[in-house]
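Fig. S4 source data, part A: sequence.
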Amino acid sequence: MGKIPVGAPIAKLKDRDRYHYLFDLKQSAPIPSRHSAPIQPTVDNLAKALFAVNRHAKTSPQPQKLYQLKTSVIEKLIDEGKASKVGLQQSPNPSKYHQQTSNTLVKVGEYGFHILSTREDLLELPHLGEWSDDFRNPTDTFPLRQAVQLLEQYIRPKETHPPVNMKRPTPISKPNHRRKSFFDPFPKK
């Protein structure tokens, strides 16, 4: 039917062990679609998606792809002027494989993210000291699947190509002869 009741029931029927309610079809509304409109890659939406990806990457058993996605999006935002590098902050848990102990703080909308510092960052940006617990990113719910789709769409927008006409190759006609087996009971004469 595709409708959901809005008003009060007009009748109540009792079955063996439960009640059934009857509603007037005129007092019903269409069921909302489960498919939501595609999310536009605005700076605010990208920041929320980055926050969701970053949050999930911290607890993921294989966070490399999520962190790579985060870094790629942040670098593109910086190149387009939609994000800015604020400064360097001392890392609370530096990697045992790197001597680097400072990360670059990047501001995207109302959110702040840390990325690995480049040599230019170390020379040009001011050092802000230790990571501060005073600044917290706004908490927002953003499903991970939608966040990853939005960020991948932002990095690699779909290119519209004309449809390629895929034709099956025409079979090459072979001469009509029988296959020879090890023993041919009907040899050609």
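Fig. S4 source data, part B ends here. The chain has two domains: 1-32, 43-155.
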